[in-house]
């Protein structure tokens, strides 16, 4: 055997999630991690109903643990697809919407991205960026829909991005229920996208957790379906069900007609066969059982949505009591698991350097990472960051007038 | 919106598993499916220990269902890697062997194949073929190690294939414990592969089920490691644990040294992040718990290996009682879940057309698909196929003298 490795040239890659890496390496006992990507924190709370269902299924002596079909557990994909599109959706009734049970939402994005690379004539789509890159897309453009200065939706800029995109580009619409766009604004987005023949790839990580209402959170997606768009939608249940480690996702395909859907699903089946063969089953069984019991489902979701809004209110109240410069109404005006704080990059850097609090440079935080143990510390730290880095008056100005 | 689908040109692919498709569409109540790929049949029996462990874990109120790390459940990958290589393996001790927790054995082959396409200088590997094709390999050559005429290992032909392969080719060594090669023959294979600098990609779907002995089944793999090869090994636990639907696999990487291993695993981590983000957890927790309890593990494996050998013996005895032409000793001379029956393509076709029994054209069957309900029917049908298609004397001649 040769003495040198065959893989001498393989470079060590940087940790894919450098923020999480910095957090993990920080020895401070006060450290807090406020990014939304991947980590679940207190939201990794499993609703008692889900836990009971899990036990019921694990206890079932008739469950044979046979492989699932390549495209997954049919009761799950059907229930999940109807949850997003609505049971009365014409795409559902006309048999031209179908799901592919995937390994988490990531698996849904990946298998969808690979399909589009192979079959979509022209091609465009953050951690999502790396999935599309891995799937072979080379031209990827980021865009923003949030004005960090005005602390509001940047609808004009968003529409401009769409207008200036090459015709037939793929547009990834991440967490549409959390963007804060109004139905009127979504209608405008759909009009521009239809005219420019842009392909919508929705990514719905937590339907129901923004408003506590499943239908309301699915408004934008359903509007696009109603307008006749063909589209993909990557759907995840990790946050809504707390079963982060069971990796259950669903790739929804809405096609022009059933014949097209059948062709697309056959290609996706081929891709899945060569990627993970068949998905894991237990998590999907638990979720399918709850999805098929709307009373249980709504109870779980309302509990979660209320927990999230309560954290938002508590944080706003703490900042008010501390006299933190600026207006913090946007914390409760927004909803869902993620929040733009309006913190400036210099303030984000202050929090990381002096307070061991880690969040994205854009000031976006995962509300679920804030809990009863770290709430006071986080609020106090934000107060110090805002007060010390820009001064009281300046803090007021960026938050209200810019 | 345009009236035509964006995906008009997407052709319907043939069912990836045409044999399974033919079986599913066959309305006969007598139909039997004897292929090994994917289907588990009676082997989807879950050992009571595994079921208890599953319940214990599902019942654990401290289990938080948080995401696993990208490379998976460390206790699982460590135990699984040591199971294959041996705890005393120099590669383990020198910290240059490591596992990547994958979504089933398929996921292990896929993520390994993609890595090799990106990082291995030159590039070779049945359902495995499609995984490598999907991963971007274009030049793939099939090979055989079984002489269907002589009903014996075709070692000379196998060595010739290796000798004539381009230097530095990748050689997929599927189910080494079931090929029937002796240690001496494996040593010869390793010598040729070392001289030709061929890269070994082992695929171990059921360690322990061939001989009932974990170490004996891992002999070939460990010999290659001991000879200093760098290699990949896709490892599956579906058959040994009966948890087919939890999709637990492990990609073992053995590198020249720890530094190289760290580089390779960092690249694999990047690939996993863009493919399924993190693997599912419950199945891996169950398997890790049993793997870390050797007494339990050996008990489970012995029970399974005995069940498999009993079916082989019963089938041979039935054929003897029926007076089926030919010698059937090879049924019990081989071991493991798959068996070359020595049936000719015309006999395989007879079984499918007249008996609703489906198996590969090579005459290979999954022993686990034969059970107490279909054993008599399968034996009677093989008897008819052999007797009617080639006649008694001819049947004898191909089985004994060719």
UniProtKB/TrEMBL annotation, chains A, B:
<dbReference type="InterPro" id="IPR000796">
    <property type="entry name" value="Asp_trans"/>
</dbReference>
<dbReference type="GO" id="GO:0004069">
    <property type="term" value="F:L-aspartate:2-oxoglutarate aminotransferase activity"/>
</dbReference>
<dbReference type="GO" id="GO:0005829">
    <property type="term" value="C:cytosol"/>
</dbReference>
<dbReference type="InterPro" id="IPR015424">
    <property type="entry name" value="PyrdxlP-dep_Trfase"/>
</dbReference>
<protein>
    <recommendedName>
        <fullName>aspartate transaminase</fullName>
        <ecNumber>2.6.1.1</ecNumber>
    </recommendedName>
</protein>
<dbReference type="GO" id="GO:0030170">
    <property type="term" value="F:pyridoxal phosphate binding"/>
</dbReference>
<keyword id="KW-0663">Pyridoxal phosphate</keyword>
<comment type="subunit">
    <text>Homodimer.</text>
</comment>
<dbReference type="Pfam" id="PF00155">
    <property type="entry name" value="Aminotran_1_2"/>
</dbReference>
<comment type="similarity">
    <text>Belongs to the class-I pyridoxal-phosphate-dependent aminotransferase family.</text>
</comment>
<keyword id="KW-0808">Transferase</keyword>
<dbReference type="GO" id="GO:0006532">
    <property type="term" value="P:aspartate biosynthetic process"/>
</dbReference>
<feature type="domain" description="Aminotransferase class I/classII large">
    <location>
        <begin position="46"/>
        <end position="382"/>
    </location>
</feature>
<keyword id="KW-0032">Aminotransferase</keyword>
<dbReference type="InterPro" id="IPR015422">
    <property type="entry name" value="PyrdxlP-dep_Trfase_small"/>
</dbReference>
<dbReference type="InterPro" id="IPR015421">
    <property type="entry name" value="PyrdxlP-dep_Trfase_major"/>
</dbReference>
<dbReference type="InterPro" id="IPR004839">
    <property type="entry name" value="Aminotransferase_I/II_large"/>
</dbReference>
């Amino acid at each position: 055997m040769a003495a040198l490795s065959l893989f001498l040239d393989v470079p060590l890659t940087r940790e894919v999630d450098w923020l999480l890496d910095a957090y993990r390496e920080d020895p401070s006992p006060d450290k807090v991690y406020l990014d939304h990507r991947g980590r679940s924190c207190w939201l990794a709370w499993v609703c008692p109903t889900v836990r009971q269902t899990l036990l019921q299924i694990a206890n079932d002596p008739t469950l044979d643990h046979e492989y699932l079909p390549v495209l997954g557990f049919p009761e799950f994909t059907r229930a999940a697809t109807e949850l997003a599109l609505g049971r009365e959706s014409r795409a559902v009734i006309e048999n031209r919407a179908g799901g592919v049970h995937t390994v988490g939402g990531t698996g849904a994005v990946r298998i969808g991205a690979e399909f589009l690379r192979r079959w979509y004539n022209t091609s465009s789509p953050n951690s999502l960026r790396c999935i599309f890159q891995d799937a072979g897309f080379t031209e990827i453009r980021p865009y923003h829909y949030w004005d960090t200065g005005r602390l509001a939706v940047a609808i004009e800029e968003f529409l401009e991005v769409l207008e200036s995109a090459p015709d037939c580009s793929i547009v990834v619409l991440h967490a549409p229920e959390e963007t804060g766009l109004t139905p009127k604004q979504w209608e405008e987005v759909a009009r521009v996208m239809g005219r420019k023949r842009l392909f919508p790839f929705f990514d719905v990580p937590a339907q129901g957790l923004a408003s506590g209402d499943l239908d309301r959170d699915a408004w934008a997606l359903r509007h696009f379906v109603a307008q006749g768009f063909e589209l993909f939608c990557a759907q995840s249940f990790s946050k809504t069900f707390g079963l982060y480690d069971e990796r259950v996702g669903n790739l929804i395909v809405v096609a022009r007609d059933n014949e097209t859907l059948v062709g697309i699903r056959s290609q996706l089946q081929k891709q899945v066969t060569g990627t993970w063969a068949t998905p894991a089953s237990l998590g999907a069984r638990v979720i399918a059982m709850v999805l098929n019991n709307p009373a249980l489902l709504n109870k779980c979701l309302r509990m979660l949505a209320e927990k999230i809004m309560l954290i938002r209110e508590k944080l706003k109240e703490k900042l008010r009591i501390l006299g933190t410069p600026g207006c913090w109404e946007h914390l409760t005006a927004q909803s869902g698991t993620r929040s733009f704080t309006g913190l400036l990059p210099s303030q984000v850097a202050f929090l990381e350097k002096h307070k061991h609090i880690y969040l994205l440079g854009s000031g976006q935080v995962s509300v679920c990472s804030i809990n009863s143990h770290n709430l006071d510390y986080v609020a106090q730290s934000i107060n110090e960051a805002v007060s010390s880095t820009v001064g009281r008056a300046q803090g007021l100005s960026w938050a209200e007038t810019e």
